[in-house]
Specification:
Number of strands: 5
Number of helices: 9
CATH superfamily: P-loop containing nucleotide triphosphate hydrolases
CATH architecture: 3-Layer(aba) Sandwich
CATH topology: Rossmann fold
Oligomer: single chain
Length: about 230
């Protein structure tokens, strides 16, 4: 008998919250890829800073605006409430987190794991130094990169690598149960979007067989094992 796994069981029941983490260095196209995922799969980008801003506005009034900082735990509660509201209304999304307010990625992952289970995937966008520098020039409409900007571009790559290692370490023994993807964005936007589609679009397996062969049980078992949908069409 296979080892009991609560996350897999909840997934088969349709109770598991699907969510993904997007990481990557500056100018690697992380937010562009997140926006494309909204078009590719039924997903929502969860912006914790925006949620904090909305909470801050609701905590004050036009006459007396709230001047303090919104705590992370209040933002966490708002996210949990929002997702519960979606699910109560039978709206199932894959929630995308491309940044968080927590002090570290592992702290964020602890919150997410505690409330929603393991992430569905972790997508790390990458690009080489030359590509990052060219994108910096284009964004800032400049032909040159000064020493300060060059140092920050280089440091962003190191931060992204530290974060990747931190997340995989935090997953521990659960790492093999999470889809970890590395997406290189050096090529054109069109190529990157095509790669996103190939990674996340639904995969179809067609089983052709003679009618005298009974394959329903075999296909059904495979669908359950690999979390697929089995359609029998004659």
């Amino acid at each position: 008998m296979n080892e009991w796994d609560a996350n897999t069981f909840e997934d088969h029941l349709g109770n598991k919250v699907a969510y993904g983490l997007l990481t990557g260095r500056s100018y690697s196209g992380k937010r562009t890829v997140a926006a494309e995922l909204v078009n590719t799969i039924k997903s929502k980008i969860v912006n914790m800073e925006q949620i904090a801003a909305e909470l801050k506005k609701s905590m004050g009034s036009e006459e007396e605006p709230f001047e303090g900082e919104v705590s992370v735990d209040k933002v966490e509660a708002a996210i949990v409430k929002h997702i519960a509201h979606d699910r109560a209304n039978s709206h199932k999304y894959t929630y995308l987190f491309d940044r968080w307010m927590h002090k570290s990625a592992s702290e964020f992952l602890n919150f997410a794991h505690r409330n929603f289970g393991l992430p569905t995937f972790i997508l790390n966008t990458t690009c080489d130094k030359k590509t990052a520098e060219e994108r910096f020039k284009k964004k800032n409409e400049t032909e040159e990169i000064n020493e300060e900007a060059a140092a920050e571009i280089e440091e962003s790559a190191k931060r992204a690598e530290r974060q990747r290692i931190e997340i995989e370490t935090a997953l521990g023994t659960h790492k093999s149960k999470v889809r970890i993807i590395s997406l290189n964005t050096n090529d054109s936007l069109e190529t990157t979007f095509n790669n996103v589609k190939s990674l996340f679009s639904a995969k179809v397996i067609i089983v052709n067989h003679e009618k005298r062969l009974h394959v329903d049980t075999c296909c059904s078992n495979l669908a359950i094992k690999y979390n697929m949908l089995y359609l029998s069409v004659y």
